[in-house]
Amino acid sequence: MKFTVSQSSLMKALTVVSKGMGTNSTLPILSGIYIRAQEGTLEFQTNNLTISIRHLIPANVEEEGETVVSGKVVTNIVKALADAAVTFEGTDRTLQISCEKSTFRLNTLSPTDWSAFPELEPDKTIELPSALLSQMVDMVYRVTSRETSRPILQGILLTVEDNTIRLVATDSFRLAVCDSSVESEAGEKFRAIVGGTVFHDVLTMPSLTDTIQIGTADSQIVFTFGTTTFVSRRIEGNFPDYKQLLPASCGTAVGIDAAEFSAALKRVSVIALANASVRFDVDPDASFMRLSARSPEQGESSEALPVEVEGQGLSIALNYHYVFDCVNAVAGSNELRLELQGPTQPGIFKCNGPVNYLYLLMPVRL
């Protein structure tokens, strides 16, 4: 095997497939990257038994062949090389990498031990704009659970129906829902639960194109864009019925300037080190909302914000870390709406725009 490729193109390819490398596996082959040179094309593959990634790039191939090399080692080498042509020459058990005056000789693994890439025919597919989908995933991704005991809560529910795309995530303490308009064929419906980390990783890949095709096949979910194919296990089960958590009306609605609210919350929460609770006191007569925090060790803090209030006054305490996740999700928006039912009922933040956003948060004890 012998081929030459630019360092920048090679580095991009390795970055794409690195998400599928095994990190703590006892099988060395799962920490490797499979490379095949054939007919002017380089094919890169990784597989950690949960995720399989394949990516193709053009190259000057002088001799066809295949090999498996340590993903971490080859990535570190290519990252350190100059932006110039890189030549690979492989034999049965070694791979020589040359770039300008640098030469490396690596031990390799047998490609016959490599598992074939899963060739799947999705039974249902949908094509979506990548930029919009990426924005929406960023808005709900942090709400997915990190607990492995309930895998369904580690996923994001994706639905497309009636020209509306919707993403939903929850960790049982909070809920994030965002939706937007998207062009789809008449009567087209799509539904899948995608691992939050997988969804985020796919949409941050440097090879991402303007559109991405998502398909479901048996227990797998397949992402296809450009010359990249990303296959992951699908999360099976019934996603929580989140709609029953959303009240039909609210007793108090507060219109908040998003930038002012974010700055005030940042100042007040400096005191809330040991206790992540921030108190919200809504006064409809004076048209303000007071944020306050108290710590036995540090002291107290408070700040009043001018707001527009509809309904009655009330007080509620919320975890400010979770509130910041909401504020960061709608960064750049002008106004937030906070809807409240009572001190022991969930608070709901809403933001409308090209992407509509709803964030439900369970209160903490006052």
TrEMBL record:
* Compartments it resides in: Cytoplasm
UniProt domain DNA polymerase III beta sliding clamp C-terminal: residue ranges: 243-365
Q: GO cellular component terms?
A: cytoplasm; DNA polymerase III complex
Please tell me the species this chain comes from: Thermophilibacter immobilis
Q: Outline what the protein does.
A: Confers DNA tethering and processivity to DNA polymerases and other proteins. Acts as a clamp, forming a ring around DNA (a reaction catalyzed by the clamp-loading complex) which diffuses in an ATP-independent manner freely and bidirectionally along dsDNA. Initially characterized for its ability to contact the catalytic subunit of DNA polymerase III (Pol III), a complex, multichain enzyme responsible for most of the replicative synthesis in bacteria; Pol III exhibits 3'-5' exonuclease proofreading activity.
Task: Return the similarity comment.
Answer: Belongs to the beta sliding clamp family.
List this protein's GO terms for biological process. DNA strand elongation involved in DNA replication
Relate the assembly described in the record: Forms a ring-shaped head-to-tail homodimer around DNA.
Q: What is the protein's name according to its record?
A: Beta sliding clamp
Q: Which residues form the DNA polymerase III beta sliding clamp N-terminal domain?
A: 1-115
Which residue windows are transmembrane per the record? none
Q: Which UniProt keywords are given for this protein, alphabetically ordered?
A: Cytoplasm, DNA replication, DNA-binding, DNA-directed DNA polymerase, Nucleotidyltransferase, Transferase
CDD domains, alphabetized: beta_clamp
Q: Which gene encodes it?
A: dnaN
Q: Does the keyword Cell inner membrane apply?
A: no
The reply to whether Iron figures as a keyword in the UniProt entry is no
> Pfam families, from UniProt?
DNA_pol3_beta (PF00712), DNA_pol3_beta_2 (PF02767), DNA_pol3_beta_3 (PF02768)
